[in-house]
Amino acid sequence: MEAVTRDFFLYLSKNKRLNQLAKGRGSHLAAGKIIGGIDFESSIACIRALNAHGLSVTVDHLGEFVDSKEVAAERTEECIGTIQRIHREKLDSHVSLKLTSLGLDIDRDLVRQNMTRILQTADNLGIMVTIDMEDASRCGATLELFKEFKQQYEHVSTVLQAYLYRTEADLADLMPLKPFLRLVKGAYKEGPEHAFPNKADVDTNYMKLIEQSLLAGHYTGIATHDANIVEFTKAFQRKHRIPMNEFEFQMLYGMRTQLQQELIAQGYRVRVYVPYGMDWYGYFMRRLAERPANISFALKGIVQK
What is the model's pLDDT at position 230? Predict the structure, then answer.
């Protein structure tokens, strides 16, 4: 049943007609509930409110699979402007982005040029930029580019997905760079040739990756709403006496808000992923596909706000 639910929401995430309807009629429903706002300006109040409750943030301008150099240039300018605004407003926020939004599917040199401008700004202002991971077909290129950037810039991090077979080897390969990594289970639909088909195997691999990253002493973002994974991490941290300033939990805006506050009260660091923009529909459907429990969390957030 869980697999059927996942496939259903992934199918919906790619429906262009529903996406257009969501842009036109649904943004007012999503803003302030599952996205920070329709643009960065309208998301600032949301970020300030989260910061006031002890929560750090990472923001993401939604939209991917750009096939125009002009649009990639616009996305680059948007990201640079966001970094500058975060610094100017003294917000506790990182920036997340997808390389496809900067032209990965057009030309790799184009991505290098765009990311160089972004990371120069990020290093100058001390704002972390996280390169989000996409589907398996883009994983290798994303990690190759991340390794290039990491050797030149300090304020760049990336994401590893536990459902891919390759990820344990990727983690080992990145270790010499001492990276800040966000560990996630994975949200795209992948075949059994690339990914573990069973949730139990994904969870086992996820916990293994958490162990390896924490023991290596590299700052780790553990992105999960799964209470079992949260408790596993806390127990592992206590057993191995890992300093609490060497990792953080990460959760989505509008989901598991009570758990976020409980973790803050217990002294843990928590970062909330706050997307913004009109292209929120595909993102939201993939989040629902990740874990059926997200459906109830999301609906509670929409109803209560």
Answer: 98
Phi and psi (nearest 5°) for 208?
-65, -45
What pLDDT, on the 0 to 100 scale, is given for residue 18? 47
- Identify the band that residue 183 occupies on the pLDDT scale cut at 50, 70 and 90: very high
- The token duo for 239 is 């057993």
Q: Tell me, what amino acid is at 12?
A: L
pLDDT in tens, 160-176: 999 999 999 999 999 99
Q: How many domains does one find in the chain?
A: 1
Distant-in-sequence, close-in-space partners of 101: CB < 8 Å, separation ≥ 6: 61, 63, 64, 65, 66, 72, 75
The binding site for substrate consists of 98, 286-287
Cβ contact 35:253 at 8 Å: yes
List the catalytic residues: 132, 182
Q: What's this model's pTM, rounded to 2 decimal places?
A: 0.86
Backbone angles phi, psi at 221, to 5 degrees: -100, 120
Known binding site for FAD: residues? 133, 161, 185-187, 199, 224-225
What are the φ/ψ torsions at residue 242 (nearest 5 degrees)? -80, 125
What gap in Å lies between CA 274 and CA 231, rounded to an integer?
A: 24
Tell me which residue range forms the domain holding 241.
2-304
Instruction: Give the start-end residues of each E strand in 202-277.
Output: 220-223, 247-252, 270-276
